[in-house]
């Protein structure tokens, strides 16, 4: 596991926010699931602030991101953000390592 993977994993357990850069966009997110899909480390985040190449919907939106694409990753305590449509039936991660409890 990478250091970034460990930071995101710990943030899920502690319900901390993640601040990171992905594709040259600063993102503020709450991680919900981390694990493996197609042999790659991936995580499902709810992005509540920052920017995105496709824009950020009002109130935030779901992002399925490869862990190795994240940089400048910091975990911090803060308000927890999610959406009413969060489901354990997500398709971002096939082999779940850690998932936020309901």
Topology:
Blueprint: H1 3-14, E1 17-22, E2 25-37, E3 40-50, E4 61-66, E5 70-76, E6 95-99
Antiparallel strand pairs: 1-2, 1-5, 2-3, 2-6, 3-4
Main sheet record: 6 strands, antiparallel
Number of strands: 6
Structural class: mainly beta
Domain count:
1
Helix coverage percent of residues? 10-25%
Which runs of at least 5 residues are low in confidence (pLDDT < 50)? none
Instruction: Give the H and E element order.
Output: HEEEEEE
Q: How large, in whole angstroms, is the Cα Rg?
A: 12 Å
Shape: globular
Question: How far is it from the N-terminal to the C-terminal residue, by CA?
Answer: 26 Å
Chain-averaged pLDDT = 94
- Beta-strand content estimate: over 45%
Number of helices: 1
Question: Main attributes?
Answer:
47% strand, 102 residues, six-stranded antiparallel sheet, mainly beta
Commentary on this structure:
It contains one helix and six strands. It is mainly beta. The chain has one domain. Strands 1, 2, 3, 4, 5 and 6 form a six-stranded antiparallel β-sheet that branches. The longest helix is centred in the N-terminal third of the chain and has 12 residues. It is globular and about 30 Å long. The relative contact order is 0.30. The model has no long low-confidence stretch (mean pLDDT 94).
